[in-house]
Amino acid sequence: MQEIADIVHTSNGHKVHYLLSVDDRAFENPFIKFLDLKIECRKFPTSWECFFILERKKRTGTVSYAITMKRTCGTYSSINATASFDIQNNTLRNGFFHQKHFGRKGMLTNHEIRDSNENAVYCEEMINLYDNDLLVHVNMFVY
User: Fold this and answer.
1) I need a labelling partner for 36 at 20 to 30 A (CA). Which of 20, 28, 51, 109 fits?
2) Exposed e or buried b for every residue in 93-126, given b needs 16+ CB within 10 A?
């Protein structure tokens, strides 16, 4: 399993990109991941808890997920946040099986953005691929 996290500061906000390669063996049970994100910036530092669950049913090739991103910093100013949760096969990097964008304006401490899908990915190619490892992209833009 490989993980890459990157935070980019821009003139109008922060971009966070998290990439996780999930090995096929990790799907024997639901795969659970917790991230503690701290965006350090003079303008508006923020911190977040990100929690997601992936589950794949081998027989059908269906992948389901649930993701929650919670603002945890104690500042009182509101911010806007948009996120995307994208699933891609490690072998077939030419396209995404699933892409979802969601967000919320006026977020304060303890506010959350969340999304889930019971049938996010169904592809016959998934069942027949030798390498069923997935790439999971979590992107967030805070502004």
Assistant:
1) 28
2) eeebbbebeebbeebeeeeebebeeeebbeeeeb
> What is the rounded distance in angstroms from the CA atom of residue 3 to the CA atom of residue 62?
23
Q: Give the type of residue at 133.
A: D
Among all chains, which residue has been given the structure tokens 């965006």?
39
If residue 125 lies in a helix (H) or strand (E), which one and from where to where?
A: helix 124-128
Task: Render pLDDT for 50-95 as a digit per residue (tens, 0 to 9).
Answer: 999 888 777 776 778 899 999 998 777 899 999 998 887 776 666 6
Report the candidate in 50, 37, 36, 120 with the shortest Cα–Cα distance to residue 86: 120
CATH architecture of 3-142: Sandwich (2.60)
User: What residue segments make up the domains of the chain, in order of their start?
Assistant: 3-142
